[in-house]
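[Discussion] Sanity-checking designs against the backbone

I'm trying to build intuition for which residues belong where. Below is a structure token string of 300 positions. I'd appreciate it if someone posts a full sequence so I can compare it with mine line by line.
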């Protein structure tokens, strides 16, 4: 299989209590590394993102370790997006947010079997670029999975973030096969403050086949469109008493969801597999978590 992954790369900076900093790859990297470990060497992944000149060689070198990753979609730009953490995820501050990835570059990587889009910064691509992608791949029936994620955030001048409704969220969802939000994002994305059920019902006329709400340790909710009706299934994840790191769990879930759907052809199976994959990675540190996903290959 060939799969394109689109979204912003960033460097996560974790500020420790003793005044030191720990830097890790973040953003779209989590999805790319996760899918690379789930995929075989016969598969080809095309990460499409921008990376700052200072980090470009390092990130290309890190991804080139995987035999199934083609790095030609990585563009060198002036600066990399940095996200600073001063405790939990609520403390995150974004700096040097990059410009949207241009469609003229993205279009070179659309002859694939599936497309994963993650709005890591909220400005990863423009809505016009998404329209162009849809027009290109729709006749070929290439599935698109989109995690709207930081599209629901506004970033202040000091880098702090807060949730706010997205007036054109319907246009973002239109003609995408599957849509992903966490429960906080789902609750606040619409101006009307729709409940989960009402939001899912709004997806049906948009031709969304599957709508996933991730709920952290509580599991996920999967809504599917069936005969113009919304069918709900809730799945509980495996309880991890003391998770080591939950950073990137939503990104890992989305990557595992699309990859397993392309293999298994059923959203119910994909959702349960992705839930297992994302939950498993919380038991490991950021440096280790992606590699352990290779243990799940046999299930696909």
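Best answer:
Here's mine. Compare freely.
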């Amino acid at each position: 299989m060939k799969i394109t992954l689109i979204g912003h790369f960033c460097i996560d900076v974790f500020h420790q209590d003793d005044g030191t900093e720990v830097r890790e790859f973040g953003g779209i990297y989590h999805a790319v590394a996760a899918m690379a470990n789930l995929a075989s060497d016969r598969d080809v992944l095309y990460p499409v993102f921008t990376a700052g000149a200072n980090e470009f060689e390092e990130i290309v070198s890190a991804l080139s370790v995987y035999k199934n990753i083609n790095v030609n979609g990585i563009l060198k730009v002036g600066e990399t997006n940095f996200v600073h953490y001063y405790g939990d995820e609520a403390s995150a501050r974004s700096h040097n947010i990059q410009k949207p990835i241009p469609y003229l570059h993205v279009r070179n990587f659309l002859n694939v079997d599936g497309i994963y889009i993650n709005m890591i910064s909220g400005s990863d691509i423009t809505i016009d670029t998404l329209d162009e992608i849809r027009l290109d791949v729709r006749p070929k029936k290439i599935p698109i999975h989109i995690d709207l994620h930081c599209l629901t955030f506004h970033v202040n001048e000091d880098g702090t973030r807060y949730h706010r409704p997205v007036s054109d969220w319907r246009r973002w969802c239109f003609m995408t096969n599957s849509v992903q939000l966490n429960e906080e994002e789902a609750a606040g994305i619409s101006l009307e403050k729709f409940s989960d059920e009402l939001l899912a019902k709004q997806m049906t006329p948009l031709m969304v086949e599957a709508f996933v709400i991730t709920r952290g340790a509580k599991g996920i909710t999967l809504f599917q469109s069936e005969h113009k009706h919304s069918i709900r299934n809730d799945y509980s994840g495996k309880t991890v008493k003391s998770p080591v790191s939950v950073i990137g769990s939503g990104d890992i879930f989305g990557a595992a969801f699309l990859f397993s759907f392309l293999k298994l052809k059923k959203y119910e199976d994909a959702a349960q597999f992705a839930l297992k994959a994302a939950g498993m990675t919380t038991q490991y540190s950021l440096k280790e978590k992606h590699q352990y996903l290779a243990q799940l290959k046999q299930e696909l």
